[in-house]
Amino acid sequence: MSRRTVLGVLAGALVLALAVSGARLVGWLGGDDPEALRVTADFADTTGVYVGNDVTYLGVEVGEIVEVEPRGTTMRVVMHLDPRTRVPEDAGAEILQGSLVTDRFIEIGPAWDGGPTLASGAHIDAAHTRSPATVDEVAKAIDDLVLALDAGLDGKGGAGLGEMLSTTAAALEGNGAHLRRALAESRDALEVVNAKEADLTAVSENLVELVTTLGRRDKRIRDFTTATADTTAVLADQREELVATLDALDELTRLTNTILTENAEVLGDDLAGLADVVGTVREHQDSLAEAFDVMPTMAENFARAYDWDLGRLRVQFAFSAGPFSAAFRSHTCNVFAAMAGELGTDMCGLLFTTDGRGLLDPLLDGIYDGLPGGIP
């Protein structure tokens, strides 16, 4: 293949590509591109907006207006956007004008930074659109301002701007120094307040928290206030009785002080004795606890010891295990030794001996031997 043939093929392919791209561009600008994003928007006023005007996104042209039609009190504008345009789902639209002699265009925004986007067929309602003020509206606003400054909006009187300035100048005449000082002091006060911003913020937050807490506790606070008022009223009604009671308490206090002063030694001895008793009770608290545990059983046994039907005791006395036994005599010696020490031991040695020759041994043995055989 010759070089001329290759160049011819490349030139043909280039022309074909340009033709296809041009057709696609013409179709998109004419609103016939099936891949274009079709978006509608309602405006309160579309003066100066025509089919073919541009649609921009963040200042970049991304489409054009393909239709403008009335819809009751609003005007609906149909726009075709480049299919690659990513516009936030909650986007808005406004009509802008670059200069007084250029056509108006529609700007959509804000910038898309992620999330859902406008799909083809999406609609922007009138609450999210804005139309520019017309020349007539601007002129009327200026005219209303002039009338307000001159003699009121209704034009039927009222103080004009010149009269107002004159009155103000007369009122402030001679007070410039005072005003300057007041403004300077106000500035200093504001600087102090500004320096305490963190403290004031904390105080405000604490006050808000306090008010919130009081609001949640409103019923309890009201109940407490009512109860306090009722209590105060009762105390007021019983004032004389309360005074008499306080006087009696004062007299009792003085008498108690006198008794304690005069009987300090006696009370000291009594308290010391009481301390000894308490100490003894504490030392034998286990024995006392055991005694109180068995005392109900012992009382019940005593109550049942007498047979009321037969009229006699139902208790058998074992004299062999009683005061005549060797165990009783040994226990008696232990008691004497505990009470009198060595003297008690010596006394027990005289009264009782292991061979039965003590002073009391013959007596106890003789009594036990003389008991009738029927008694155990």
Write a compact overview of the structure shown.
This protein is of the alpha/beta class and 376 residues long. It has twelve helices and ten strands.
Task: Write the H/E string, N to C.
Answer: HEEEEEEEEHHHHHHHHEEHHH
In percent, how much strand structure appears in the residues? 5-15%
**How many beta strands in the DSSP annotation?**
10
Major β-sheet strand ordering: 7-1-4-3-2-6-5-8
- Shape field: elongated
Biggest β-sheet description:
8 strands, mixed
Characterize the quaternary organization of these chains: single chain
- Structural class by SSE content: alpha/beta
The unreliable regions are 17-31
Whole-number mean pLDDT: 78
Radius of gyration of CA atoms, rounded to a whole number:
59 Å
Distance linking N and C termini: 154 Å
How many individual helices?
12
Q: Report the helical percentage.
A: 55-70%
Describe the fold and architecture.
By secondary structure, this protein is α/β, with parallel strands linked by helices. It has twelve helices and ten strands. The protein has helices at 3-29, 135-151, 161-172, 176-195, 197-216, 218-237, 239-262, 264-283, 285-304, 326-340, 342-351, 361-370, and strands spanning 37-43, 54-57, 60-71, 74-81, 92-97, 104-109, 123-124, 129-130, 306-307, 312-313. The strands form two sheets. It has an eight-stranded mixed beta sheet with strand order 7-1-4-3-2-6-5-8, with no helix packed on it. A two-stranded antiparallel ribbon has the order 9-10. A hairpin with a 2-residue loop joins strand 2 and strand 3 (60-71). Helix 10 (326-340) runs antiparallel to helix 11 (342-351). The longest helix has 27 residues, at 3-29. It is elongated, with a radius of gyration of 59 Å. Mean pLDDT is 78; it is low at 17-31.
